[in-house]
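On clarity, I found the account of how folds are encoded harder to follow than it need be. Since the whole study asks how a given chain folds, the encoding of that fold should be made plain. For illustration, here is how one protein appears when written out as sequence plus structure tokens:
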Amino acid sequence: MDIDFKNPKYYENRELSWMKFNQRILNEARDVKLPLLDRFKFLGITASNLDEFFMVRVASLVDMVHAGYKKVDICGMTASEQLSALRKETHEFIDRQYTCLNRSLKPQLDKQNIHILEKYSDMTDEQKSYADTYFRDNVFPVLTPMAVDSSRPFPHIANKTLNLAALITPEEKSRLLKDFEKPGEIEFATVAVPSVLPRLVSLPTKNDKEQDFILLEQIIAANMDKLFLNYRVLCTYPYRVMRNADFELDEEETADLMKEMEKQLKKREWGEVIRLDVDDGIDKRLLKILKKNLKVADDAVYTINGPLDLTICGKIAGLSGHDDLREEEFTPQVQPRLVGCTDLFAEIRKKDLFFQHPYDSFETIVDFIKQASVDPQVLAIKQTLYRVSGNSPIIAALARAAENGKQVTVLVELKARFDEENNIGWAKMLEKAGCHVLYGLVGLKTHSKIALVVRQEEDGIRRYVHLGTGNYNDKTAKIYTDCGILTCSELIGADATALFNMLSGYSEPAFWNRLLVSPIWLRNGFYHLIDREIVHAKQGKKALIVAKMNSLCDKGIIAKLYEADNAGVEIHLIIRGICCLRTGIPHISENITVSSIVGTFLEHSRIFYFYNDGDEEVYMGSADWMHRNLDRRVEVVFPIEDPDIREDAKHILKVEMADNLKAYYLQPDGTYERKDRRGQKSVGSQMTFCEEAIQRSQEAENKDSNEVYGRRMFTPAKPPEE
């Protein structure tokens, strides 16, 4: 029977699948078993995620609708149909966010004697006096009130800023107004809530056991009359806009990519308003003015029952002095082989090093670049940078290396979304330090994670390479799960050199020794690996694929997985976010399981396992199974050739497949559910990896590190049963 594996009915919409992912994060905020402030953290993450989703994905659909784009997506939906479905889903999702805040989180916070006062009138007289003084001394000098009339047009409202809108009338005329309806007597005014001041304002309390806070916008709203003297303030309500932040660069027509990017970043602030958040009690006349001037349709208006912009929950989660309301912070461990190590290059020559962050400290990777920058035997350093931290020690080490006379080549990806401005700054700084800075290939983002160190040694030139699944960001490395290796393999070193030559010039290699590189070679490489399992299955042999990634939405890969399932290949997918594959379809996906782990750390590593008739192969890399990764980016996927490291990678997959505490499993109806744990041992993969890292570290203190390296210690955490 011929089956069309690309039939749209076998696929899930990408955007709706992402919304399900954000719902899984919201479920963490709703989980009463988690520490209270951690629940606030997860709620803040859902808000931050949704902001970016609107600015990019929803904005892209709006553009398509405006352009009359009729082509359907992977599951057969038009842009208009997707936008309509998303508007409905996002309205419902925001309602669920505020239900969680108002009915669960805030009451629990009150029980801890931490109070976020909802209104100015909720404050005591002492607190009101304090707030008014705070406004006069700290807030008033920063504000810029703006009235709108015939000589003052409606001002530009910046993206993602919180604002207060008011209806005002001249004091001498206000006495004549009846119900404030007389035309021409009411004016509109607005003021931005300054982001340079803390939004969460601490208030004095009667005792040290209580903590009271008020939001900055409440203080400003209560003092609006001081901004518009000789006017009566009829009403004041907060509002917030989200603008289209998606843009395309015509790189072939651009002479200077950095200057063009700087120009486009300025335009981003003027993008179309695609979402307007307002208080659910807002005056109808005020809303009408906002909708008209911001050109917002009814379905793009979101009425909010609570404080606008829930990213404030991240600030609440970080309140000092309440460690008992947070999960104990995990300290990344130094690998046993590296305890007391003074020569990292010598250690790499002995045997490849494997890292699973944040369980293994990222400091070793920072030290790799730092040591290279001052080592007199190092001749050159080459590295790709996609996202780095605000005060990056890696950037500092690269600059120092150039100042020390080494040849330093750095590819800084200027098109890393929402990190463009940051990366432009780093690129300029590195150029001033004497580094050769590249901006990638025309039309392609460089998303690969690779660093190459060329060193002169007694027996000749040796190349040391770091390959990873995550960014060279020392801050996110503490909260993202990623994997990487340090190796001096000659073949991988040769491939690394070829990759940088390709990025810096027009030198496209005829072949790759070990690496799989997109956009040309990676897709066919994955097809080959899947096809090989299909052949084994058809021969009646065991065939197995286990793949862990962030997102799966490439139609070609999904169709190939369906073909593999139909042939009898067993497939296990661990996908944090978007999954356009559907499970449980007869003859299509009966042998496929999909799980999604949402926990303390953000799952970010990509690991691909193929049984290969017993000659197992494992790959890691920077690429998800998405069209953009396979066809529109420079990505690197690398094989794990060391047998011990291959066992480490298999262990990671085994533990994550056994997770029944933090993993959700995709059901045939498209929903995600946790496993029934009755009668089963509780397994939390992230807790297990934390425990193992600590155990390895403790054993290293008493034993030779080489004896400890590679040991398996599968001791799942056992929380109290429900």
